[in-house]
Amino acid sequence: MNEDFDEAEWRERVREFRAEKDDFFGSHDQSPIPPEDREGFDGLDYFDPDPEFRVTAKYSAVTDTESVELETTQGPPAEYTRAAVLGFDLDGDHYTLTAFHVEGEDTLFVPFTDATNDDATYDRGRYLDVDPADADDGDPIALDFNLAYNPFCAYSDNFACAVPPSDNHVPVAVEAGERNYA
To answer: What Pfam families does the entry give (predicted)?
Structure first.
């Protein structure tokens, strides 16, 4: 991503992130894993960390921060505020994803689909939380697909989750982050 990138440190951060998530899913009362399945839970399935899926995105602030409704897996649509468009290169092609502001959150919500859905990853798409770090229009920010995760509805029908909008589709296989839950 840049010359200051320390791959060993990055790999350790990804490992720690995954370990904390697995611990939460296996033991916390608010885990989406059904209580009867938590005792035998030994962690989620992830793609191996791959620095090729940690890209630099150009942050383009949205001038019209309109609210949009995203379809949900069940129930009424959910309302989100468009915050930015993130432009990035992956496998030699350029793509964009819309990032949304969620009230009360510092990170931006980026729901997306890619060519792994229905096969290696959850069929309705995955999510990223992106730290804009006070980014201004045109600034570079990190977009790390190794931190892509499944929505809670991938683990239990008790949750209604936002479905990524059709324009948040990356037409290549993003083999990074969480895989399907078995």
So the answer is: DUF1684 (PF07920)
* Angle CA 7–57–4, to nearest 5: 30
Q: How many domains does the chain have?
A: 1
Rounded distance between C-alpha atoms, residue 178 and residue 182, angstroms: 12
Amino acid found at 148: A
Q: Has residue 39 been placed in a domain?
A: no
Q: Report yes or no on 14 lying in a domain.
A: no
Q: Quick check: is 176 in a domain?
A: no
Distance CA 135, CA 23 (A): 32
Range of the domain at 101: 47-170
Report how far residue 117's alpha carbon sits from residue 88's, in angstroms, rounded to the nearest whole number: 20
pTM of the model as a whole: 0.92
Residue 140: inside a domain, yes or no?
A: yes
The burial of 38, by beta-carbon neighbours within 10 Å (0-12 exposed, 13-18 middle, 19 or more buried), is given as middle
User: Could you read off the pLDDT of 15-55 as tens digits, one per residue?
Assistant: 999 999 999 999 999 999 999 999 899 999 999 999 999 99
